[in-house]
Amino acid sequence: MSAAAAKNLALPSGPSVQDVEAGLPGSARKARTPLSLVRSAPRKRRAPFVVLCFGMLAAALIAVLVLNISVSTAQYQLVKLRAEQTALTKQNQDLTQQVQNFEAPQNLAAKASELGMVAATGKGQIDLSTLTVSGDAKPAVKGDSAGAVIAAPAVPGQLNVVPPASSGEPLASRAPAAGETAAAQPETPAAAKPAEPAAAAKPAALNGGTIPAPEQRTPGQ
Amino acid sequence: MSVAQGKSKASKKKAANATKRLRLGLSIMLALLVVVGGKLFLVQGLDVGGMAEAALDNRLRPTVLPAERGSILDANGTVLANSVIRYNITVDQSVNTKTESFKRLEKVNGKDELVTVSRDQGIAELAAVLGMDAGDVRKSVTGTRTYYIVAKDLRPDVENRVSELQIPGIFSEGTSKRVYPNGSVAGGIVGFLENGTTGQAGLEQTQDGILRGTAGKRVFEIGADGLRIPVGIDELTPAQDGKDVKLTLNSDLQYFAQQAIQTQADKLSAEWGVIIVSDVKTGNIIAMADTNTPDPNDPGKVAAKDRGVRSVTAAYEPGSVEKMITAAAVIEEGKAKPLDTFVIPPSLVVDGQQFDDSFSHGTEKRTLAGILGWSMNTGTVMAGQRLTKDQRHDWLQKFGIGEAPEIGLPAEAKGILTPADQWDGRQQYTVLFGQGVSQSTLQTVRAYQSIANDGVMLQPRLIDSYISPDGTEDKVAAKPPRRVVSEETAQQVRDILESAVTEGQIKEAAIDGYRVGAKTGTSQSPCDDGTAGFCGYTASMVGMAPMDDPRFIVEVVLQRPKGSIYGITNGPVFRSVMSQALRTYNVPPSKGAPVRLPQFAK
């Protein structure tokens, strides 16, 4: 209560102040302290502090939760990506193996003979510095005897491209040609004269078979 | 006054009762707290029951990280052997037997739905995917065992389809399988594994330690949901994959040579045959072909005796190819020159030993070149007589006879070169023409390579380099070269070999466009079963090309071909393999005139 208000208040009736102050004997009644409005101190506000505490708690909890969620999500993603990687590795391996199977020399040779290709044995050379052609490249001729067939790789699960019967043999065109004389004379590149293919010294007596009959060799012939 | 006293006494008593009750309650509470606290201390602090340990053990998963076995490659990177992922399908029989039906997510009418599948249907589908009989599949998934293998070595796409079926109790485990994409091409050299892990033959055996690598280990904590606990223990020792082995072989040429020797051996019904193609300048082995090579994917198909590499393991008496060493020794020692005259009788008798040639002739005046060109035993003994016994022995040794070539294959033969003082009256002469001494084909090739390389012998190389998993290539250092004969001697011997083709009896070794030098060899082959004497012949031919600057040596050997030995020639095989080698490596044709040393003396 303000001091002004206190002044405006009427004092209660009763023995006057002077009487009390005089301390006159005979006033039997005790003087009461005049009532006045007590001014109270402003009360401390506690609510914001509590809110702050709860807020910090909540924030910490949320932070931990978010962290855990993100780590776990990352873990799931990792698992998914690893699975993808494994699947792609497997596919890659599978395809690589198929390519290797096609590239195996036996399979290539078998496929080539399936297509009717014949190995060439004569060749010519082109000298790029002088632009001359030397040698005698004749078209490849199909031999009449089949050579040994090296079996296709027995890799399980891969297709087998080796045909049941092969034809054509790289060595067939090297079979001794009847009537050709043996003259192995290497050429100089300038000379355009074709070199005669080297053949056996004597025509082999095949007698309808494929193995030449044994014969005694005599020198000089 | 007493009432008041009584009242205060009563109140004091009440107060005392109340205090006592309070104290009692408090002490009970304290007692309980002590019990709880004590138990907490025991469990958390002392861990009497070992429960923390047990919990950790439950969560920990140690996994072995297998190391990938290294591959074997040829000179161009073609894969000769490598490891691939394969799957075994295993079943927990107890789980599968008791699950009569299971739910599976399937696409029905475009929407994902949970469909109930019966056990029978599951078994039928599994049999269809595996390509097995449904009855067999049912037998293997029924029972009480927790681990049973239903199918082995499945490819990843098949395993994928099996896992999509989601049949309860069916699991797949990954394994590694060794495949050999080129099959029997270089099959004996590459070798094969026993029980899928250890090398048993060829390079898989000798290089096993390098190919194998070291397994790694991973320890991590896993939760009940099967996911790794991110904040738990995670120790990783990475696996070290094996190194790749790169060879000097050319697989196309290897196939060609194998096909050629197989054809020739089949045609002449020979026991076995061998072709070696070697690079003169480096000593690299370009091709090493054997007959009946095993396919490492299925090595049991060939006989056990065929599973090795005869090019290095088979030692035999070389025969006339050894005459080159005699000629080189005689020229280097200054005892003869290629054009020296020798008067050769029809049959030579030395020290009571008689020597004849493969053809009958009268007395002839021959040059040293002619002696080799016509492969005359008599002339060779005449010329070789000029060397002492020790000289003959030492020259053979210098050329590598009796010394195994170490190229990394198992059971390499050393050959037999007995000391000179152990030679009897005949052997001291027969070693001059290659009988009474034994060597493998690779040793012969090595001896000829020294002549081709101007007298410097290079040790043969099969393993070119090791490639680590990170790609760094460690070339295997070549062994130190050694000079065997001088350059001039080597040149003169080469001239003799070339004249054997141009003027001598080996005209079938000639190749269009290239100068070729060659030597044939026909030796008597000692019987294998221990009986005394000889059984059959070994026919061989070794040659080099082009003679102006030799690049390749090719040797063709045929053991015990049937038919008369005089009609058999390895010429066509030699020609085709040599020209294929020259073609593959784009060797320019020979320039200049070929050497033609006269075979007869004037």
UniProtKB/TrEMBL annotation, chain A:
Keywords: Membrane, Transmembrane, Transmembrane helix. The chain crosses the membrane at residues 49-71. Residues 175-205 have a biased composition (Low complexity). Residues 161-221 are annotated as: Disordered. It comes from the Bacteria. This is Cell division protein FtsL. It comes from Arthrobacter globiformis (strain ATCC 8010 / DSM 20124 / JCM 1332 / NBRC 12137 / NCIMB 8907 / NRRL B-2979 / 168).
Automatic annotation (TrEMBL), chain B:
The lineage of its organism: Bacteria, Bacillati, Actinomycetota, Actinomycetes, Micrococcales. GO terms for biological process: cell wall organization. It comes from the Bacteria. Residues 273-578 form the Penicillin-binding protein transpeptidase domain. GO terms for cellular component: plasma membrane. It comes from Arthrobacter globiformis (strain ATCC 8010 / DSM 20124 / JCM 1332 / NBRC 12137 / NCIMB 8907 / NRRL B-2979 / 168). This is Peptidoglycan synthase FtsI. SUPFAM superfamilies: beta-lactamase/transpeptidase-like (SSF56601), Penicillin binding protein dimerisation domain (SSF56519). Residues 65-228 form the Penicillin-binding protein dimerisation domain.
